[in-house]
Amino acid sequence: MEGVTAVPTPRPEAAGSxxxxxxxxxxxxxxxxxxxxxxxxxxxxxxSEGTVTVAGGPFPLTxxxxxxxxxxxxxxxxxxxxxxxVFAVRRAGRLAVxxxxxxxxxxxxxxxLLGASDRGAxxxxxxxxxxxxxxxxxxxSHTAWPYVAAVGGALLLVAGLLxxxxxxxxxxxxxxxxxxxxxxxxxxxxxxRVDPDRxxxxxxxxxxxxxxxxx
Length: 215
Fold this sequence. Notes:
Elements: H1 12-43, E1 46-54, E2 57-64, H2 65-68, H3 71-85, H4 91-115, H5 120-130, E3 138-142, H6 145-166, H7 199-207
Antiparallel strand pairs: 1-2, 1-3
Helix pairs in contact: 1-3, 1-6, 3-4, 3-6, 4-6
């Protein structure tokens, strides 16, 4: 029919891109925050235990993740900071921060898996407890916490890979500053003409903060 204007429908590509942006952003935020928290928590738990023979018999020894290696906890903090920084930068900067996030996750995984079979921390404790620098830990066993830390690193890695692949679709913090506040202030309307013989015009001018006398 003539005179009827067709209403444009949104393009499927644009709708799909927006949906992908929201989904990947949510997954990255959840994975990154959860991964950092898991890695930090696991680093404070007991990773290994054993004994050393002293004069009174077997002496128990334990080592937490932070005693074995401080790398997972440090990289978890770096990864969390990189996750936040992703939204403060654009283009090449965003790619660099996303790469740092991914590397933090990969490094956490590697350090945790290496620490899963470490005995150096307990050997050092054994030497101090026995007073013999050549003493080593006996009946050594490890817990599952190093692998939990590795899972945290894997979540950080997932967040970094998502940021590398889809970060260009995500929003960024606004860096624009209004110049002299001009954009924040509405333009002042031109003063309406005041008829001195009309009391209502005088009152309206006073309400607007104008001088009705024109002085």
